[in-house]
Specification:
There is one protein chain. By secondary structure, the protein is α+β, with helices and mostly antiparallel strands. The protein has one domain (2-50). The protein contains two helices and two strands, in the order αββα. It has a two-stranded antiparallel sheet. The longest helix has 14 residues, at 2-15. It is globular, with a radius of gyration of 12 Å. The N and C termini lie far apart (29 Å). 4% of the residues are buried.
């Protein structure tokens, strides 16, 4: 279920063209397993170069 939630939120952010925020897996007991947080600028730069 966590992977589905991450994919959903990641797609939602992508569809809204939100920059600088990622949906990341962060499971903790009693908490949601996905958190929205600042994206990794180094990873964003590598992804942009790949496209």
């Amino acid at each position: 279920m966590c992977g589905r939630n991450q994919a959903f939120l990641g797609g939602y952010l992508h569809g809204l063209e939100v920059n600088g925020v990622d949906a990341v897996l962060a499971p903790e007991p009693g908490e949601c397993c996905v958190r929205l947080g600042p994206s990794d600028p180094d990873r964003d730069d590598r992804a942009a170069q790949d496209h």
